[in-house]
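Quick check before the chapter quiz. The format below is the same one you will see on the exam, so make sure you can read both the input and the output lines.
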Amino acid sequence: MLLHIVARGKIARSPEAELVDRYMSRITWDTKLTELPETGGRIPPHKQPLRTVALDEKGRDLSSEKLAGILGDWRDGGIREARFLIGAADGHSEQQRAEADLLLAFGSATWPHLLARAMLAEQLYRATSILAGHPYHRAG
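Here is the expected output.
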């Protein structure tokens, strides 16, 4: 299953970009990162069937194990792509929230978008490590 992060805004060269690259390169599943401008832009075509996860402050605060379980169920159920949406400064539209299969939050705090991108990449690495039975998830 492809893990595809679609994020508004360019990350450029930064410590956050290095973290995203570090974790994305460690994931053994197929991964993709698409950066879009703050507004507009074209989201690339997706593989079917698709599940969409929108990072949203009102979303569910899942443990790493629960996120891994969801991804594992999707993968085992034949889902070909899980798309993770990180919105612009104003977040997602009501339509995007309603259409998402899962609204995901990293706690009740508000996080800078670049840091949220790095946190998401780390959680995807952790989730795939859990599913592979790798001990990484117990180290953090």
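If your answer matched, good. The CA atoms of residues 3 and 31 lie 5 Å apart.
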